[in-house]
Write a structure and sequence with these properties.
The complex is a heterodimer of chains A (504) and B (285). Chain A is an all-alpha fold and 504 residues long. Chain A is 71% helix and 2% strand. Chain A has three domains: 45 residues, no CATH class; 178 residues; 244 residues, MetI-like fold (Orthogonal Bundle), CATH 1.10.3720.10. In chain A, a hairpin with a 5-residue loop joins β1 and β2. The longest helix of chain A has 51 residues. Chain A starts with 5 loop residues before the first helix and ends in a 6-residue tail after the last helix. Helix content of chain B is 73%, strand content 0%. The two termini of chain B are 44 Å apart. Chain B is an all-alpha fold and 285 residues long. Chain B is globular. Chain B has two domains: 61 residues; 215 residues, MetI-like fold (Orthogonal Bundle), CATH 1.10.3720.10. In chain B, α4 runs parallel beside α7 and α8 packs across α15. The chains are: A mainly alpha (504), B mainly alpha (285). At the A-B interface, α6, α8, α10, α11 and α12 of A face α2, α4, α5, α6 and α7 of B.
């Protein structure tokens, strides 16, 4: 395929353009990858350079530093205390005391056990009455979790230590130049002004680190252990096993012990089909409904819209659970059809594997169309009316107007939304879990998985019902890889998303 | 009606078929809700039955719901969580969105990219560790109400996109003018941006208030086994499993109605802001 010039490119239709972009992306992939690989040594070298530069800087501060600065390397805040920065000094000193206390009484023990994850889980002793007494000793889970917490605590401490040293360096220089360093009041004032972002972001980021980053880090580590139902603390210990869980999940041998790999592959395929069909069926049908409602001459627009929007308002656990009961084998749909005589025996809407898959996709339309209807309505109203006027004068039919004006405009504006809703659908827990719970179960699958299970609902079953945490963690990581890969590809294909400043 | 006569037969046919389509659509959309109402008011038998229209209308299901079950406790739990979440999440989202939209600082891109990457991990993956961290603070099982408030608020910083998109559309020259006049960043935030951000504030409050009512995944794990600490979703879900469905189905419907009506009313009255939020968010990405 030859490379097109800009003008030729703009002359293509949107679908051809996409095809062209895609082929260019694929063609450039090897080059990009090798470029990336070539960059790795360069990047490593750069890291080495920054680290040495950084160490040199710290060393320089130490060598040039006076007594106060040098002491601050060991007693944080020492320099600040004697340089009119009492507030900062006290805070730094407190941090160091807390850190040392934390490490001595808590962190160090757990950190040193991280390698083995504990030696003895339960100690059995016989007391003087001849009864067996169980004493719980090492808890692998606690060791791992608190070990991770300690690691993050240490990283945070190193960061504050570096800030402390650098501040000393600057303060010393300022004093040598005869300038009095900023006091505590000025610090506070700056936090409401130039450094306001620190005030704004401190609490939210702390929350994200504690309740998102640390847990994710922890679960990634779990994927390399054998933590499951037969290794449940506090009765049992678990241990590091390296890449064994990944091997179980990804092995190509799909007979016997490879059943997990088979289940994973089947569920991954269904998850991708589900996400693709759910996203695009909602997208186009929602757009179609929006166009119908917004059509000139249609009355009661508001009534139609309000009725559809009700599905967004009613909590999903009410509406979806109810719908799942309506389509159950004994549900109202079957009894209604039976009494009409339309069917002679009950249809397993949600209990026959393939029909259940179709049904969740159809019911998902019921959930998703209203969203898209709202979004499409908003976008449609922004399309300049004169575009349609001139198209009409040129004699363009309704369908042509749709494919040449409405659709390209919609796709252009809602491109980012399509990506986010695709990834959201990969992780769409509610619809599947509340409708079918992953059922119908099949014997062909391992790990309690059912025919309609997505990776995310399988992950749920694996943890909550089966307690198979190690494989659940592997699934979680693989889901991440799938989502990240897709996002990366789409990002590379649509330059509009990248240029954030363009909007401002 | 002269207007209509001027329309061609084809046009009228198209309009007619659109009406038929839309009315069918609305009927399909309404059926589950009508079914819900009918079941909630059905007097005879609490199990699933093979007909839709009740033979005997009564309020008995509501009576059972409010007096014989823990529903009021669950409702109260969820209400507390929702109110707290509405306050905390709104504050956090606005702070993050403002900082990332209006200020340029070292590490800004890194924070945004990191949040993007973190968002790609399935939320449930981190649940087990989150559970143990909460347990460390003693905020699981019987204390899961404050526990849930904490984790909802803690992770809410990542949902800043829509608010940031909104802030991005407010001209930066406004900030700069105020800064030249000597206003500090925090003053700009409270005095200039906040008054202009009313739609997005209402949107954020609304979403933060509504979300906890439907959360099942987190709530079921955190409050596992402690009936007093359930939220409505977890509590009502249990009534539809095999052992309970025959004696609780209509009561579930009554409970569902009890939850849905206020939420739906709130949603409908603030619909305008919701539409602005989702369309703005979808367009900005």
């Amino acid at each position: 395929m030859k490379k097109l010039s800009e003008l030729e490119y703009l002359g293509l239709s949107p679908s051809k353009r996409f095809g062209y972009d895609f082929s260019v992306f694929l063609r450039n992939l090897p080059v990009k990858l090798s470029g990336f690989l070539k960059k790795i040594p360069l990047g490593l070298w750069r890291i080495v350079l920054t680290v040495t530069g950084f160490l040199k800087e710290l060393g320089g501060i130490f060598i040039k530093g006076d007594f106060k600065t040098r002491t601050s390397f060991f007693v944080m805040g020492f320099g600040q205390l004697f340089r009119h920065q009492v507030g900062r000094g006290i805070i730094f000193l407190l941090m160091e005391i807390i850190f040392i206390g934390f490490m001595v009484f808590f962190g160090f023990g757990y950190l040193s056990d991280m390698g083995s994850l504990g030696e003895v889980a339960v100690e059995r002793t016989i007391n003087e009455y001849g009864l067996e007494i169980l004493t719980y000793k090492d808890n692998s889970l606690k060791i791992l979790l608190y070990g991770v917490l300690t690691i993050f605590f240490i990283i945070g401490f190193i960061y504050t230590w570096v800030i402390n040293v650098k501040q000393n360096g600057t303060a010393q220089k300022l004093i040598e130049q005869g300038i009095r360093p900023k006091g505590f009041k000025a610090d506070i004032k700056s936090l409401a002004d130039e450094q306001y972002y620190k005030t704004l972001l401190a609490v939210p980021l702390l929350g994200i680190v504690v309740f998102t980053v640390i847990p994710i880090f922890f679960m990634i580590l779990i994927a390399f252990t054998n933590y499951d139902y037969s290794h449940l603390p506090p009765e049992k210990l678990f241990d590091w096993v390296g890449f064994e869980n990944f091997r179980t999940m990804l092995s190509t041998d799909i007979s016997g012990s490879g059943k997990f790999a088979y289940t994973f592959r089947e569920i991954l395929i269904w998850t991708l089909i589900w996400a693709l069909v759910a996203t695009f069926s909602n997208y186009f049908l929602g757009m179609f409904v929006a166009i119908c409602i917004n059509r000139k001459g249609i009355r009661f627009k508001k009534v139609f819209r309000t009725i559809l929007v009700m599905t967004i308002a009613v909590p999903q656990f009410v509406s979806l659970l109810l719908v799942s009961k309506m389509f159950a084998d004994e549900g109202i749909v079957n009894s209604f059809l039976l009494s009409l005589g339309a069917i002679t025996e009950k249809i397993g809407w949600l209990s026959t594997p393939n029909l259940a898959k179709i049904m969740v996709l159809v019911i998902n339309l019921w959930v998703g169309i209203p969203y898209l209807m709202l979004i499409a309505t908003g976008v449609l109203m922004n399309i300049p009316a004169d575009l349609y006027e001139s198209a009409k004068i040129d004699g363009a039919s309704g369908i042509r107007q749709f494919t040449k004006i409405t659709l390209p405009y919609m796709l252009f504006v809602t491109g980012p939304y399509l990506l986010t809703s695709f990834t959201a659908n990969i992780n769409n827990f509610n619809v599947i879990y509340l409708l079918t719970g992953g059922r119908p179960k099949t014997l062909a699958y391992e790990g309690g998985a059912g025919s309609t299970d997505l990776l995310i609902t399988w992950l749920y079953t694996m943890t909550v019902t089966n307690n198979d945490y190690k494989l659940a963690a592997v699934i979680g990581i693989l889901v991440f890889i799938v989502v990240a890969a897709i996002s990366l590809v789409v990002y590379n294909l649509s330059p509009a998303i990248k240029n954030e400043e363009d909007f401002q | 009606m002269v207007r209509y006569k001027s329309k061609s037969g084809k046009e009228r046919f198209i309009l007619g078929s659109i009406y038929v389509f839309l009315i069918t659509l609305c009927a399909i959309w309404l059926i589950p809700f009508i079914y819900l109402v009918f079941q909630a008011f059905r007097g005879e038998s609490t199990a699933m039955v093979t007909y839709v229209i009740p033979k005997e209308w009564s309020l008995r299901n509501f009576e059972i719901l409010l007096t014989e079950t823990k529903f009021l406790q669950w409702y109260f739990n969820t209400l507390v969580i929702a109110l707290a979440n509405a306050v905390l999440q709104t504050i956090i989202v606005l702070c993050v969105a403002y900082a990332l939209s209006r200020m340029r600082f070292k590490g800004r891109r890194f924070i945004m990219n990191a949040m993007l990457v973190l968002g790609m991990f399935p939320g449930f993956l981190s649940m087990i560790a989150t559970y143990f961290i909460l347990k460390l603070f003693g905020l699981t099982s019987e204390n899961s109400v404050p526990g849930l408030i904490l984790i909802y608020a803690a992770s809410s910083g990542m949902g800043y996109y829509i608010a940031k998109g909104f802030f991005d559309t407010i001209p930066k020259s406004l900030d700069e003018a105020a800064r030249i006049d000597g206003a500090s960043r925090s003053r700009v935030f409270f005095r200039i941006i906040m008054p202009m951000a009313k739609p997005i504030i209402i949107y954020t409050i609304m979403m933060a208030f509504i979300a906890p009512w439907g959360d099942f995944m987190y709530a079921s794990l955190i409050s596992f086994g402690h009936e007093d600490a359930y939220n409505v979703a977890v509590g009502l879900y249990k009534w539809l499993d095999k052992e309970h469905i025959n004696s609780y189905f209509t009561i579930f419907c009554a409970g569902g109605l009890f939850v849905s009506v206020p939420i739906t009313a709130l949603f409908m009255s603030l619909q305008k802001y919701y539409v602005e939020g989702v369309t703005g968010g979808a367009v900005k990405g």
